[in-house]
Amino acid sequence: MDYKIIVIGTSAGGMDALKKILPVFPPAFPVPIVVVQHISSLSNGFMIQYLNSISSVRVKEAEEKECLNPSTVYFAPPNYHLLIEDDQTLSLSVEKKVNYARPSIDVLFDSAVYAYGKSIIGVVLTGANNDGAKGLANIKKAGGYVIVQSPETAYSDSMPKSAIAETTPDLIIPLEEIGVVLRDLFMKKSNLFI
């Protein structure tokens, strides 16, 4: 399958999880990565700056109507839902909270299904609620590939357990393996990483 985007959802413990995943990607990584991390509405952007400083791919806050580019990780801004439009640009929304969260992982995942269909890899990481479970199930139903962090390696296991209960993931793996698996899914089709 020719996957064209990775979408990742995480909450409590997410920064520690992402700092183990994003630095694994090489600078010429061939697809965009879009992330919803549950954050305070008053967040100052430190997490994005830090992750950008330790990663070979570019890490940035998503902007309205921004085009998705490979080798780039887009984060939902504080207090905005992040959606992917049919033309594969990004959109921000202040619609009501979903699963008590804005940004909501389910909102991102569901919009990705409309924009990309089966060409999605969806990932649910550590988190303390059930956001992302229904959206990941929708990615799976559309024919996408779904990965869940094994609950025993999660800082908070509620989100991984909810995702596993809602759908049948293609992989349930420890945090330390997720970045390598994602990288290797694309290495097999490209000599950019040799």
Please explain how this structure is put together:
This protein has helices spanning 14-21, 46-54, 105-116, 133-141, 158-166, 175-187, and strands at 5-10, 33-37, 58-61, 72-75, 81-84, 90-93, 120-124, 145-149, 171-173. It has 194 residues and is an alpha/beta fold. The protein starts with a strand and ends in a 7-residue tail after the last helix. The strands form 2 sheets. It has a 7-stranded parallel sheet. Helix 3 (105-116) packs parallel to helix 4 and helix 4 packs parallel to helix 5. Helix 4 links the parallel strand 7 (120-124) and strand 8 (145-149).
List the topology elements.
Elements: E1 5-10, H1 14-21, E2 33-37, H2 46-54, E3 58-61, E4 72-75, E5 81-84, E6 90-93, H3 105-116, E7 120-124, H4 133-141, E8 145-149, H5 158-166, E9 171-173, H6 175-187
Parallel strand pairs: 1-2, 1-7, 2-4, 3-4, 7-8, 8-9
Antiparallel strand pairs: 5-6
Helix pairs in contact: 3-4, 4-5
CATH superfamily: Methylesterase CheB, C-terminal domain
For the record, what CATH class applies? Alpha Beta
Judging from the principal axes of the Cα atoms, what is the shape?
A: globular
Quickly give the CATH architecture.
3-Layer(aba) Sandwich
In short:
The protein has 194 residues and is α/β, with parallel strands linked by helices. The protein contains six helices and nine strands.
Main features:
194 residues, alpha/beta, Rossmann fold, 7-stranded parallel beta sheet, two-stranded antiparallel sheet, 6 helices, 9 strands, 31% helix
